[in-house]
Design a protein that fits this description.
Elements: E1 2-5, E2 13-17, E3 20-24, H1 34-57, E4 65-71, E5 75-81, E6 85-91, E7 95-101, E8 105-111, E9 115-121, E10 125-131, E11 135-141, E12 145-151, E13 155-161, E14 165-171, E15 175-177, E16 180-181, E17 185-191, E18 195-196, E19 200-205, E20 219-222, E21 230-231, E22 237-238, E23 242-245
Parallel strand pairs: 4-6, 5-7, 6-8, 7-9, 8-10, 9-11, 10-12, 11-13, 12-14, 13-15, 13-16, 14-17, 15-18
Antiparallel strand pairs: 1-2, 2-3, 19-20, 19-23, 21-22
Length: 246
């Protein structure tokens, strides 16, 4: 037989079925029970763990402002230390990463690029902006100003050390390279060129008019390649020779 007693809120309900008894706490006392307090502590512990995970994913130390906005990107990451302002905004990029230390201002903006990376240490200003490029890379150390801007290029690279100003701008070029060390100003602008690089060394093979091989002392340093004749190392004119560039 099944018996039910104490159906009001003051007494517990007891349901008996042969030798089995189940007790229920009154409805008006369940909210003040220890189970509810334990539930509150579990929720607080879970929230603290979520905050720790968020802070470890997006770290910031001793910064006035750290802002990161990304749209339609697989990964957008910005981690600064001891910076006044670090800002990174991207659209439609696969990967955009910006990491700086002890800089006053570091700004990186890119659109429709596969990779845009800017890393700087102890610089006053480092700026890199690119559109529709496969790769744009700018790395500097101990420079006052380093700027690299490119459009519709496959590769634009400008590394510099201990320079006051290094500028490289190009349009519709396959390769534009400007390396410099301890220079005040080095500028290489180019348009619609496949390769812009200066200077270079050429090895000249002169015409074999006398039947002898002239392979020695034929290294010439050119500032530019033009359709004209040059002198070899010994001062003899070389007309119509073959030029091997290194």
């Amino acid at each position: 037989m099944e018996e039910k007693t104490g159906t009001n809120s003051k007494n517990p309900r007891i349901t008996s079925n042969k030798n089995k008894k189940i007790s229920f706490a009154p409805y008006n006392k369940q909210l003040n029970s220890d189970n509810f307090k334990n539930l509150q502590s579990k929720r607080k512990l879970k929230r603290n763990k979520e905050m720790e995970l968020y802070q470890s994913t997006f770290p910031a130390q001793n910064n006035e402002l750290v802002s990161t906005s990304a749209q339609n990107n697989e990964l957008g990451s910005a981690s600064p230390q001891n910076n006044e302002l670090v800002y990174a905004s991207v659209q439609n990029n696969e990967l955009v990463s910006t990491s700086v230390q002890n800089n006053e201002l570091v700004s990186t903006s890119a659109q429709n690029n596969e990779l845009a990376s800017t890393s700087a240490q102890n610089n006053e200003l480092v700026s890199a902006s690119a559109q529709n490029n496969e790769l744009v890379y700018a790395s500097t150390q101990n420079n006052e100003l380093v700027s690299t801007s490119a459009q519709n290029n496959e590769l634009v690279s400008a590394p510099a050390q201990n320079n006051e100003l290094i500028s490289a701008s190009a349009q519709n070029n396959e390769i534009v390279s400007s390396p410099a060390q301890n220079n005040e100003l080095l500028s290489v602008p180019a348009q619609n060129n496949e390769l812009v690089s200066a200077p270079f060394i050429a090895f000249v093979i002169p015409p074999q008019n006398n039947g002898s091989d002239m392979w020695i002392n034929n290294f010439i340093l050119f500032d530019s390649v033009q359709e004209q004749n040059y002198e070899d190392y010994q001062g003899s004119r070389v007309d119509g020779g073959l030029y091997y560039l290194f």
